[in-house]
Amino acid sequence: MSDQRSNKPAAPGVGVALDPRPGAKVYKVRVYHKGTVLHLGRFAEAHAARLAYDQAVVCLSSRKRVKTNYPQGIYELSPGGKDFNPEVQRKVDAFLVKEPAGCSDTDDASEGAAAAAAAAAAAAAADEPAATPADNAAASASETDQDSRLGA
């Protein structure tokens, strides 16, 4: 039996495809989640495209182990990590607005920061000062005092 090698190039990675247009040397990244396709964009390097796919699929999956291009834990793909791509995270977050399953990498601190930013934006739109967590606690305490005086 002769050793025949294929002229077909090696696959660029899971969720990554070489753009088929003539002369295009970019890699497209797509993630399939619950029957919906999330397009993460085009990348000049296959490595960057693979990392983008891994970051998105780990964030979207509720399972501990998912099929990624690189073994989990080698790259720091969580927010604040050196390999984290904020553009990919922005696209995943926008996708999750339609599919509110939540991102497994999101921690309570970032959720609180996002809520505070949303409150500040809403207050700016209404030309009112933004409520701080201390203001919210004070309002909650005054409601509790009011309820106790009313016998609730």
Topology:
Elements: E1 16-18, E2 27-33, E3 36-43, H1 46-60, H2 86-98, H3 108-125, H4 133-150
Helix pairs in contact: 1-2
Describe this structure in words.
The protein is an alpha+beta fold and 152 residues long. The protein folds into 2 domains: 9-106, no CATH class; 107-152, no CATH class. It is 42% helix and 12% strand. The chain is built from 4 helices and 3 strands. Strands 1-2-3 form a 3-stranded antiparallel β-sheet, with helices on one face. A hairpin with a 2-residue loop joins strand 2 (27-33) and strand 3. Helix 1 (46-60) runs parallel beside helix 2 (86-98). It starts with 15 loop residues before the first strand and ends with a helix. Mean pLDDT is 72; it is low at 104-117, 119-133 and 135-150.
What are the defining features of this structure?
disordered C terminus; single chain; 152 residues; three-stranded antiparallel beta sheet; 2 domains; 4 helices; alpha+beta
Q: Secondary-structure element sequence?
A: EEEHHHH
Helix content: 40-55%
Distance between the termini: 87 Å
Low-confidence stretches: 104-117, 119-133, 135-150
Query: Major sheet: size, sense and barrel closure?
Result: 3 strands, antiparallel
The number of domains: 2
How many DSSP helices?
4
Fraction in beta strands: 5-15%
Radius of gyration: 23 Å
Could you tell me the mean pLDDT? 72
Across the major sheet, the strand order is: 1-2-3
Shape label: globular
The number of E-state strands comes to 3
Secondary-structure-based class equals alpha+beta
